[in-house]
Amino acid sequence: MTSSSASRDWYRAVWRWHLYAGLIIAPFLLVLAVTGAVYLFKPQIEQVIYSDYYQVEPAGDRLSATELYNQVQAEYPDTPITRYRPGESANRSTEFRVMTEEGATTVFVDPYNGEVIGSQLNADRFMSQVERIHGELMIGPLGDRIVELVACWTIVLMATGLYLFWPRNGLQASGTVYPRLRKGKRILRRDLHVVPGFWVTAGLLFLVLTGLPWSGFWGANFQAIATNAGVGYPPSIWGGEAPTSTVKTEDVADVPWAAETLPVPNSEVAGYVPLSLDQVDTIAITVGMDPSYTISLPSTPDGVYTLSAYPDRAQDEATMHVDQYSGAVLADYRYDNYGIVGKAVALGITLHKGTQFGLPNQLISLAICLGVILVVVSGVYLWYSRKPVAKSGAPSAPSRTRRNVLIVLLVGFGIIFPLVGLSLLVVALLDWLIVRRSTKLTRFLNAG
Amino acid sequence: MKRIILAISLTAVVALSACTVNPDAAERYKQETPLQATLDIPGVVEAGEPITFEIDLRIEGDVEPDFVHLELQKADGTISYGMQEATRTADGTYELTTSVKQDGLYIARVHAQANGSTIFPAKQFIVGELTDDEWAALYDGAAPVEAVTEPHH
């Protein structure tokens, strides 16, 4: 085989992978790009659609956290209150999270008069729906794995796309940086796929790599390995347990609530009592939490109050665990306390969400999302317009040697991203069990 | 092809065995040295009689606490005896002897600081007899929920 025919064989092999992977991934990538573009503007969108819940008129002194807590508990008797968020500005309502039978619900309260403004089931919030589509296609863990797979295969698509596009006679601005509008429809169709692809590749790779650490499988394992190695997030921020309160359970004040009519001796009553929400709120202010902080309430006798803030900038993040009886700070993790991987992941998350640099961040990410939509649509159109009738239009399958080299490369990729390895296994099984046994399919897919 | 499928299967099985965060992983990150205190209150306490509160502090390293105070207050907030300094005894614990005038449900709160760690644990206890209202308040869980004072931060 001459070097030029070997090169053509390689080109066809890569093209084949790019085509099939692209066609399978395209609809998912489109969904991710559209929902991602919407989710970028979560702060602005929620500010508009929930302004009635968010906005309050400052009027005198705010009620204390405990007073507000008691107001909400009175409205929702026998319903556990799990979280308190005072609100980051004077005209922002206070939020409590209660666990109703329907699920986690946010109750909005006017902190100046204690009036409950309204409540909303968290799962019903518009942005929760968008997030569920973007993160798990609204089908739970299976969807999460599919999104992760799409993200991994997007890297394969970008790598194969770059190989196919890379001009053998040197880079030229036309057809790379801008499309050639007067060279005929065939060239234009190609450029409408390649040019936006050239522009968005770096940005899309960044979004994929910064999104993967949130994924349920690869991300969870990656985070656990990084945390265990001392270079990730400290435990309890992403994975791992929070510390427990140090007071022994038997020393906690324990009133026999069932025996409501019988007085009990002091030895039964005397014991440690938990801090009030006011006291924990004072700790949050004293230690300088970002004003957007939330306080998660302990749900067990040895649980802790968890103070956390995840504002726009990663550098302002904080997570703190406070002993519910003594007020001792058991753990205080700020951005500076993250390991190097933890810092990169935290920064990646805020950049991915478009909050790190405000509007410019949102607009750049929006441009990437729109570029991805254009690449996906033009890619499918490019294939459809060129493909012969009743055939997939894929180049013929490469020689056994090249096929195996490519598969070994993908297996290597599959070791880093196991779901890709699993999907390769599924493809190989489908090929072996179905495609190879059907002449019609073999011909359609040009897999002979 | 079969060997490749086998290789992928093995890789996937090994890689899919999920990692978890080790229980001791926190040791690799910033550590706090929280102060701990145990407060002992006599089993029987009568109004007008001396009550001795014993505070046992556990501090990391050989350092003196910045302060050890005890705040005494009726649980319903009607009587406050303010903050009083506990004195160090020969065995290294801290002690305060005082008395209260009325029967009722009380809160004794330790305020202590050392090594930059501030704590304010509190215990509730009964002096003499409780009224029906106090029993009702106690059963209602008022003492654990209501704030008594601001922390000593």
Walk me through the structure.
The complex is a heterodimer of chains A (448) and B (153). By secondary structure, chain A is α+β, with helices and mostly antiparallel strands. Chain A has helices spanning 3-39, 42-49, 51-54, 65-75, 126-136, 141-165, 185-211, 218-228, 266-269, 277-286, 340-353, 359-386, 400-416, 418-433, 439-444, and strands at 81-85, 94-100, 103-109, 116-121, 271-273, 294-296, 304-309, 318-323, 329-334. In chain A, strands 4-3-2-1-6-7-8-9 form an 8-stranded antiparallel beta sheet. In chain A, a hairpin with an 8-residue loop joins β1 and β2 (94-100). In chain A, α1 runs antiparallel to α5. The longest helix of chain A has 37 residues, at 3-39. The model of chain A is unreliable at 256-261 (pLDDT under 50). Chain B is α+β, with helices and mostly antiparallel strands and 153 residues long. Chain B has a domain at 34-140: Macroglobulin (MG2) domain (Immunoglobulin-like, Sandwich), CATH 2.60.40.1930. Chain B contains 3 helices and 9 strands, in the order αβββββββββαα. Chain B has helices at residues 2-16, 132-139, 142-145; strands at residues 36-40, 51-58, 67-74, 80-85, 87-88, 94-98, 104-114, 117-119, 122-127. In chain B, the strands form 2 sheets. In chain B, strands 3, 4, 7, 8 and 9 form a 5-stranded antiparallel beta sheet that branches. A 4-stranded antiparallel beta sheet of chain B has the order 1-2-6-5, with no helix packed on it. Chain B is extended.
